[in-house]
Amino acid sequence: MQIIINGEKKTINGSTTLAGLLNELNIDTQRVAVELNMSIIDKSDYSNTILKDNDSLEIVSFIGGGAIG
Amino acid sequence: MDDKLIISGIEFKSRLWVGTGKYKDFEETKKAVEASGADVVTVAVRRVNITDRGKENLLDYIDPKKYKILPNTAGCYTAEDAIRTARLARTAGVSDMVKLEVIGDEKTLFPDNEALLEAAKVLVKEGFIVFPYTNDDPIMAKKLQDIGCAAVMPLAAPIGSGLGIRNPYNLKIILETVKIPVVVDAGVGTASDAAIAMELGCDAVLMNTGIAGAKDPLKMAEAMKHAIIAGRLAYKAGRMPMKLYASASSPLEGKIGG
Lengths: 69, 258
Fold this sequence. Notes:
- The complex is a heterodimer.
- Chain A is mainly beta.
- Chain A has one domain (2-61): Beta-grasp domain (Ubiquitin-like (UB roll), Roll).
- Chain A has one helix spanning 18-24; strands at residues 2-5, 8-11, 33-36, 39-41, 56-64.
- In chain B, the strands form three sheets. In chain B, strands 5-4-3-10-9 form a five-stranded parallel β-sheet.
- Helix content of chain B is 36%, strand content 16%.
- In chain B, strand 6 (97-100), helix 3 (113-125) and strand 7 (129-134) form a beta-alpha-beta unit.
- Chain B is α/β, with parallel strands linked by helices.
- Chain B has helices at residues 26-36, 79-92, 113-125, 138-146, 168-177, 191-200, 209-212, 217-237, and strands at 5-7, 10-12, 16-19, 40-47, 68-72, 97-100, 129-134, 153-154, 183-185, 204-207.
- Classes of the chains: A mainly beta, B alpha/beta.
- The A-B interface holds A 5-8, 25-28, 31-35, 38, 40, 42-43, 58-69 and B 18-23, 26, 29, 42-48, 50, 53, 57-59, 69, 71-72, 74-75, 84, 87-93, 101, 103, 106, 109, 133, 159-160, 185-186, 206-209, 212.
């Protein structure tokens, strides 16, 4: 199945839950926020969120910044 | 001296707030933040690099238990993007605070006031503690106060310009216009600029490039810490009136040859 993660197309062969995908990507869920098709997913819902073909994910975190335009 | 800064029930230990952009590395960021004595640290929200997971995280260096993390919506040019970024920041972070920026133009990085107001309205309704980056316009400041922003953050000069306090009189009018705290955001280039902002009566100053862009950021961070304290004290002390002519400070009585 193909999904879009942070604007890039990815083929997913393994887990189809969001929690599984984040684990495969080695992402610490503590410090990120995830949007699935423009809706924010609660951290408590990661394990019961099933990904579908053509889903679009945004995975964000904090970086250094003051006020970079 | 009891001179605490409290905004929306949150107590701020320092009146110097710092950004974390433009440093050489996380280690330098950490040291500069420590040297500044700040307890508010702004961060930006960006996509996680999913192909290179080896990268360290800023929050490994800036402990959210020790500092108040203030996420910003830097880089957002529409109300929609800013709202979306603020919501993501709240999910990724630990508080409802957001430094709301809706940029109107790439060259000046001046705010888009119309979109700022629109985004602020939505976020206030959603329970965010909104700190809007705005220009030094008292009318705008009043509008932001009226819709429920926690403070206003007028710029002193364009972001990253280091031009200092370009319009102290407008800041003064803003201070007289609004009841919510006024935090100068952007434009401070050196310690005296920070002191001037505080002497005017501003409640705090947020800066990034003023420290990160100095030849020695750690020394400048320390200088800024002292400038903020000195400026605040001078404001509380109340300066002497300015006079055109001299006024001797030594008594004339008993001088020789009289």
